[in-house]
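Task card 7
Instruction: Convert sequence to structure tokens.
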Amino acid sequence: MERVIGIDLGTTNSCVAVMEGDAPVVVPNRGGYKTTPSIVAVTEAGKRLVGHIAKRQAITNAENTVYAAKRLIGRKWSSPQVKNTLLASAFTIIEGPHGDVRIKLREKTFSVPEISSMVLQEMKVIAEDYLGGPVSKAVVTVPAYFNDNQRQATKDAGQIAGLDVIRIINEPTAASLAYGFGKGFDRTIVVYDLGGGTFDVSVLEIGSHGVFKVIATTGDTFLGGEDFDGRVIDWLVKGFHEEHGIDLRQDRMALQRLRDAAEKAKCELSSVVETEINLPFIISTGRNEALHLQRTLTRQVLEELTADLVARTIQITQQALQEAKLQIDEIDETILVGGMTRMPAVQRSVGKLFGKDPGKGVHPDEVVALGAAIQGAALVEERHEMVLLDVTPHDLGIMTVGSHFEELIPQNTTVPTSRAKIFTTSRDNQTAVKILVMQGESQKADENELLGEFVLTGLKPAPKGQVEIEVTFAINTDGIVSVSAKDMETGKAQSIQVTATSGLTTDEIKSMMQNAQEYMVERRTDEAFETERQRAESLMSEVESMFPIVERVVGASDFGRDALAKARSVVERARQAVQRKDTGAVREQVDMLERTIRMFRGVVSRGT
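Output:
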């Protein structure tokens, strides 16, 4: 049976897991790390870098290194979140052809799903190296509060990466699967998920018979570790400006150094009470005078700088409890997910809200990928011992007269589900109605997300309010929304399956998939060459080290001189093949070098 991998596509780091027997395991990358930075860069030579190698060169290549792309995925250029990101990014963000967001690296422009696909492709490679074969199916996690367009953009990223994303699953739900799978207990839990870019909180019931039911979920898709880092950056920039009158944000390399220093200091302050931020030669003045930045940041100051961010997460958690209609004492355990939950102030605030310390039973960076792997195995193996009941993260409805939003399926409704409502025409002799399908929590339609639209025609002319139209919404377990409208008198009907958009056309996705496939062929070819090169150079070195010994033993004979000449020829051909980067020729010479070494060893053993 084909293996399905689980991928946590994170804002700061990503993680991949797979089921081994009855247990999920996180797959380490080649460096032995369980997580990989969600960072993509393009070098001056046009080479793509992903992960740790991209992070290491971020300071010297700041404007061509992308981080936190997840915060932009599925968003419109006009959104306030994009405007906020523009102010703090070292890389160039521009408007795309469909009102979407594009990122410029070197001379090429990439869509956000394309950038995310590069991270997913890296996860795919890590899994394939571990499993020893190709991987094509994946379950990918998203923040619970993602809307349909953000989910579709994530799915498109998977498709571009060469993955069949068989299910998109909410991150807190995935964490609950890893926490409760196979445990056989009945518990009501809260998953508090504060990651690098997003915050979610979900209330779930876990049944002893393997039923995982989400009761309520809410969140903020623009609240996370990036914002905590931003507060430290602001503090550093302000102090430097007061001292030197220079705004460090105007220099891309300085801004990237500040980002790195802020993140590092924030992480250190989870285990120590103060840390020094020391950035020598941060910027040069017009007089070619180098200026340095050196400040001490204490845990207390960090907590003061970010107190409102932590308070916002607690407010959202209280909202989730209200929507779940549960009291604090009805929650058995709180599960902390995401790297930001290591911050002592976060742990204290959550503990204070629930009157007890949060649980320590899961790894905050790995638990989401583990849950995705469990869900993937359950889908392909059709396991009946596990049932997952999730909810809609947002209200679904239509726009009515006066640009009002009329909800049909409320937020936190268990899926799959369907709801119908009767509406009447708003004008005399109206023969057609346009149905605008929307998603969001605002009573004003234009503040919500437009998912799709269609027109019901052929209505019988009548005074306004006389024609009744039944609108039915249905949503399946994959989150696909279908909407139909029917004239109650004539029975005339029209329907659409609402397909969210990531801002990419089908042709664009196909082109990006082709580019990704070509990249993988080139990468695998480079990897194969590198493996053979290392082997060839090791063997050449060994052969050359044996020349003096062999020459002493058999150099006086015609046979010996001939053998030595042939060996030198093999070494030279191998060196030329390496210089040409001809993988096949290098592999052929590796075989010849191994035969030469066997022959030399035989000569040496006979001579001694």
